[in-house]
Amino acid sequence: MSILEESSQDASGGESELMACHQCDLLVEVAELEEGSKALCPRCSHKLQASPRGGVSRPLGLSIAALGLFGLSNAFPFMSFKGAGQEQMITLCHNVMELYRHDSELLALTVFGLVVVLPCLYLVATILMLIPMRKGRRHPAFPGLAKIVFGVGPWAMVDVFLLGVLVSLTKIASMAKVELGLSFIAFVLFAAAFSMVVSSMDKEWLWREWERLETK
Ligand SMILES: [Zn+2]
What we know:
Blueprint: E1 16-20, E2 27-31, E3 38-40, E4 47-50, H1 57-75, E5 79-83, E6 86-90, H2 92-101, H3 105-134, H4 142-152, H5 158-172, E7 177-180, H6 182-200, H7 203-212
Antiparallel strand pairs: 1-2, 3-4, 5-6, 5-7
Helix pairs in contact: 1-3, 1-6, 2-3, 3-4
The structure holds zinc ion.
Zinc ion binds next to loops.
């Protein structure tokens, strides 16, 4: 962990960068980070920059895994309900379609956007952004893709949706027998992988890594 103050020099001889703390506005000189380390503001301990263990390969691998798990979340039954002599099986997309059919078009579109479209857009843009970086190439599409990734990231509400499903399950469980399907397990793993991607995508660190690369 490196905490560098405003006037400090990078002892390793690497390039250092002046950054303003988003929390308290202190100007801090941040040295090039080693993998798995982070720079904190010396005044308020706010995280200024973080370099994930494994470098670019970590968010790239996690994004590919998350996209695969999202595919599985839609390929099998999400959950089934048994009660009053009836059995109903639903898939993830079925959830959204049911909302739409029951006059909740706005809610259906919001869920579809925040849980399906934005997370997929985020993951695809992340993969396209990181593949050239992984190969050591400074791709000109990086700034545009970074705008999508860091603009979309806060709106992808995978974890909120999962929390909502779990809360509903506790209510439904008293009325019907609920069985979780393979896609539910895949979705839980997808939500975990997705939040790991988001936590390893440090904006300052990625821009710095990209600037260090040669144009090819
Ligand atoms: Zn601060």
